[in-house]
Task: structure prediction
Amino acid sequence: MYAGDYLSSNLGHEIINLFQADNGHHYLYLNSSGNLNKAHEGLDIMLMVKAHSADSFEVIGLAKGLHVAPGATMTMPRDISQKVDLISRAQRDYIASEPGDVSYGGVSILDIFNDAEQQNIFITYKADKVLVPSNRRIFLQYDKNGLNKFDNKEVIVALKSHNMPRTSLKSYIYPEESIDGEQLSDYDNILTNIVENADLWTDKAVWKPLCNKSTANQRISLFDICKMRDDENRVSNALAYFMSLEQYRPLWIKFFGNYGVHLHNNYNVGREISSKITDESIDPARYPSGGRIDLLIEDSGNFVVIENKIKSDINNVKSDGEGMNQLHRYINFAQHKVSATGQTPYFFIIAPNYNIPVLDEETSKRYRIITYRDICEFLDEPTNMAAVESDWNFRALYDVMKWHTFDSPNEYLRYEMQEKFEQRLKTASSLISAPKTETSKLSNEIEKNNKQQSVLNMAKKSAISGEYIITVEDSGSIRVCKIYDNVKASLRECAEAKGFEYDPNWTTRQFGSKLIKEFGEGNEATIGEYTIVKRDSGSIETYRTYDNTLGALREIASKVGFNINESSNTRQNGSKLIDFINSNK
Result:
């Protein structure tokens, strides 16, 4: 499960595996093309897993009583995007024969995935029952010398005779005829300690999607577009910004007051503050210092040191040349500073709930851990949430922090899948209700408007003129972006710029997919100023961000009747052009 690049545009068919269809039944899709080797059609149990580490999977679902769907064992072509009428007919007839036409949130599975590139197989299995872990995390550990582990938080089952599947992303495990010694076989080990362990499983958490769920209405921010959810520096920058704004100071004073810190309203927030003690009278051997403090909040009475950790860990003593970690050096620095000012020092670590650092005894006496869940629960209070909702950028930061409130780093992927599935259902519902001749046009407009809005949301000042978006960034610089209506023409420009040979008869989807495969990674490619994106539906989108901004402004100005002032700079011309466009709408 979740083997694609889900943080950008991909929505794999296997999303249906953990959702219950409207008719109450469970349907499954087998990674990665949906088809099943006929030699394995007698299997009865499927474990759904997510990559966890280099040699282990986390088990996130269990399906029992598997019934192979018609067409799923037929031979697929090497290129799975090629339509196979026999398979498609068998699948569509099967779906039509099932109660309710196999729909989710009122939308048929055919409408949910019919625009995707792979349109042969929609369902691999129908299952009697689908379960998810109840209160413990479950892992398959591929280790020939490994031991099973059971405690109140997790179960680890060691697989000794199988190798971890890395290419096909699926593995078939049968009873083994012989096994050395008394060690259980992998098959018996899984069956006894996972499948038949009823205490591990529940069916109450299996989702049943509804098109009107709030998750379907969530907006995409630049944190999502630029894949910065896990970027400690960017998140720290955002925290510092919203801690500094005058209108939010009472909010943060209240928050830190819960931890015994009584900040004054005139506090200052610093980023990446050097913790080097420069006083030559201080022996650096006895009081090592150095490094940079992520966030430093300071007023006349308080000196608050904050280390923000997301994916990285606290450096340990063994890896530190001075025999202490960074947190100890911050303590030395803070104590030296406050000895002259009389301020009270406080030390905090902000960490995601799935990566709470383990502190040594001495450090734990000085530092308090604040989890992202602690912050979000505080912000969830109605009066505090009103402040969050008053600024879309603050709301975007809140949504980022929300991803780090889960107990497992993989758990948020399940939440994200629910959100993305709800969004797909909402879009599919809109397309179904539109006249057939308008469907393609509506889909393109939805995607284009979403992209334009996501750019404008984070802009200081902006205007849209046809295919062009002009924005004034927070720094005052001008950015021009063009989202193409004639996508195929832009793909020709990209291909010709790179000397890439193309067939003029290629469809836009074929053309875009081949360029992404040749010059990009996943579902996106950057070619010079151009970016090519393959969206959820399989459609291709291109946009261009201009390096020569003034040249782009001239191009737009000539189309809208605005006179560029050649004696003014780019920022001045860009700002006036935005005002001109907006005043003439």
Summary: Residues 486 and 542 are 9 Å apart (CA to CA).
